[in-house]
Structures are given as C-alpha cells and as structure tokens.
Amino acid sequence: MRQLKSVKAKDKKQREIVMVRDFPEVFPDDLSGLPPIREIKFRIELIPRAVSVAKSPYHLAPSELEELSRQLKELQDKGFIRPSSSPWGEPVLFVKKKDGSFRMCIDYRELNKLTVKNRYLLPRIDDLFNQLQGSQFFSKIDLRSGYHQLRVHEDDIPKTAFRTRCGHFEFTVMPFGLAGYYRRFIENISKVAKSLTILTQKCKTFDWGEEQKLTFQTLKDKLCNPPVLALPEGTEDFVVYCDASGIGLGCVLMQRGKVIACASRQLKIYEKNYTTHDLELDTVVFALKI
C-alpha cells in the first residue's frame, strides 16, 4: 500500500480524522526507508552511442554546504542514496523553498540530453479542469515524498550519480525532478520574463543584474499568488480579449468576468515591422490557434 501525505484539517487534529485513525500506517510523518519492491521500477534508457558525463560540483554557500551534509546523511540513513564509483556525475544545487528551507536538486540536464524521451501522452491540464464543471467537492491526495516511493532499476542506478564535496553518490530511488508547465497560468508571462528569456538567446552576454533578479522574484511571486484561473461553467458567455504592443501579443479567455485562461508571447523579428492594425489581427490569429 502506498504511503499518502498527511492531511491537515483546520478544525480537527489529524488523529481525529476517521480515515487517518483507522489506517495510521498509510499516513506517516516521513518515509523511514526504502519503498517495497514493486513490479515497476524507474528506467533510464539512453540514446545510441551515449557517453557518460561527469561535471564538477557547483560552488555552494557555507549554509548550503551545511545543509548538503545534513541531507546526504538523511538520504543515506534511509537507503535512498549510496556511495558510487559510477563514471557518471552531475552537480548539486539548492532551491530555497517558501518556508526558508532548502530543497536539494541534482542538475540532470546533461543526462536528460542523452535520455530517450518518454512519449507517453499526459492529459492536458485544461482538459482536466473542463471535466470538473458542476463539481462541488474536491479532494487532493498526495504521496509523501512521492518520487522516493519508486525504486530505480539496478542497471540504471549508476546513471543517477551526483558529485559533491562530501563524496560521490547515486540514487536507489527516483530522484526529485522539476517541472516547467506554468506558462499557461501566468498572465503576460512573455512580458514579465523578457529580461530572462533574452539571456537564453545566442550571441547574448549573460549579465545577471538587478533587473533579472527582480524578474526572477516577480515570477516566483506570481506562481504563489492570485489571480487564480476559474473553471468554465457550461459552454456559453465566453469572451476573448486580445491586445498587442510593440513588444508582444496577449489574449485572455473570460466567462462572466472571470479569467479562464491567458496566453502571451513576444513579437517575432518580422512582426516588429507590422502596422498597429496588422498587429491587432495578428493577436486574434494567435488567440484562435491556441
């Protein structure tokens, strides 16, 4: 049985919830060790002629080094990682969470480039939201340390290796990964993130200044705060608002005054020569194609 993340009730203590009281082994505060052996294990399939990659560790602040040592010990004690002699080795970095604590992440970008991508079709989030029309009650169930509840296949464990100043280790359970699907949920994302996306262009000098820091913080704030997208109700009263400027296109789908979806992008080079009238039409075409 999978272990589920604890549910925090506002007016009741956790032990007073009937489900939690009847199945305490399913609602632990933390995973104490390796998950049970299951039929399915995490696999990493490499492209033909792929060669192992090993990168030097990133520079870490003293506070991060202290946190690294603590988290490595915790992961080893649980059996989630073990010492490695693998030719693979990716660097470690830390992401600061909202509560001020640090999440240890492995920069697996080089490994990802050599991995055969899983083409399994995931459902679209907006399609799932549409299926919620008319619903009144919602439940959210999450796995406690969900990634760590799936073992890595023994043949692929060496590929998960990472390098630190404290040693060379590899994961026996699936390591934590990051997702990047937030674009559809942040209004004017292209305009807000422009100072960052410019840094990814070819022949551009990477200059991380105050403007970039402010943009990065703004994006984080927008991910954590309203306005929240509403669910559509029925199939009527939808209105699309479009607008264009000298730097980008934007559109918003609304229903009875509530934002249902939004999208935006920067102007392409040839579009910067468009007249105002053509830009407005360009925005309409952009909205209809989404």
UniProtKB/TrEMBL annotation:
One of the GO BP terms on file: proteolysis
Molecular functions (GO terms): endonuclease activity; peptidase activity; RNA-directed DNA polymerase activity
Location of the Reverse transcriptase/retrotransposon-derived protein RNase H-like domain: 208-289
Species, as recorded: Tanacetum cinerariifolium (Dalmatian daisy)
Transcription as UniProt keyword: no
All residue ranges annotated as the Reverse transcriptase domain in the record: 95-179
Protein name (Swiss-Prot/TrEMBL): Transposon Ty3-G Gag-Pol polyprotein
Keywords: Endonuclease, Hydrolase, Nuclease, Nucleotidyltransferase, Protease, RNA-directed DNA polymerase, Transferase
